Amino acid sequence: MTKRVAILFSGGGSNMVALIESMVGDHPARPVVAVSNNAEAGGLTKAQTLGVATDVVDHRPFKGDRDAFEAVLNETLAAHAPDIICFAGFMRIFTERFISRWAGQMINIHPSLLPKYKGLNTHARALEAGETQAGCSVHEVRLQLDDGPLLGQARVPVLSGDTPDKLAARVLEQEHILYPAVLKRFAEGDKTPVLLP
């Protein structure tokens, strides 16, 4: 049975686009909705252009009431009955109630070689630490931030003269390859990590 995929994002949605464009032909999944917490997110127009339904659940009117925000987000997602939820730069941290509701169905991409550099400013932190390799990881979502079983990684060499922005751009190219590969495998029921060189 083809899996129904919801994609959550906050900004330009480049990973969202990569995921949508990968779900064609005999792919085991198809996109059913792209949801943003930002009504101005550039990715909304991109998703619509690709023929995917969009919705907005703005967190700001809830004034820090995460339970109320998540209740509306849950209703929005449930209306599309997703089998898989892909976080693609959705810049919110979720409560245990939300995580429990969708346990085993959520995957996320993070711009570091987890378990290193969880959280923000990953590229600057990798450079400051003198790393010779950086990269990105896809993992199942758990309550702990950027934790959960690893589903895939792609590595990028750190080059002389790299800045956080230069490194981020090269890592993002790998994100667009890794995330679709992991989603396909995950939709097939295979949680064996995808490891790209």
In a nutshell, what does this entry contain?
Helices cover 34% and strands 23% of the residues.
Which short descriptors sum up this protein?
single chain, 197 residues, alpha/beta, Rossmann fold, 2 domains, 8-stranded mixed β-sheet, 6 helices, 8 strands, transferase, Phosphoribosylglycinamide formyltransferase
Notes on the structure:
Helix 1 runs parallel beside helix 6. The two termini are 31 Å apart. This protein folds into two domains: 103 residues, Rossmann fold (3-Layer(aba) Sandwich); 90 residues, Formyl transferase, N-terminal domain (Rossmann fold). It contains six helices and eight strands. The longest helix is centred in the C-terminal third of the chain and has 24 residues. 34% of the residues lie in helices and 23% in strands. It is α/β, with parallel strands linked by helices and 197 residues long. Helix 6 links the parallel strand 7 and strand 8. The protein has an eight-stranded mixed β-sheet, with helices on one face. It is globular, with a radius of gyration of 16 Å.
Radius of gyration from CA coordinates? 16 Å
Name of the CATH architecture of the largest domain:
3-Layer(aba) Sandwich
With helices defined by DSSP (H or I, 4 residues minimum), what is the helix count?
Answer: 6
- H and E string: EHEHEHEHEHEEHE
Structural class of the secondary structure composition?
A: alpha/beta
Q: State the CATH topology of the largest domain.
A: Rossmann fold
Provide the CATH top-level class of the largest domain. Alpha Beta
Look at the structure and name the CATH superfamily of the largest domain: Formyl transferase, N-terminal domain
State the end-to-end distance. 31 Å
Q: Shape from CA axes? A: globular
- Which stretches of 5+ consecutive residues score pLDDT under 50? none
| Side-by-side strand order of the widest sheet | 3-2-1-4-5-6-7-8
Strand content: 15-25%
Helix content: 25-40%
User: In this structure, how is the largest beta sheet organized?
Assistant: 8 strands, mixed
Query: Averaging pLDDT over every residue, what do you get?
Result: 96
Number of strands: 8
Regarding quaternary structure, how should these chains be classified?
A: single chain
The total number of structural domains is: 2
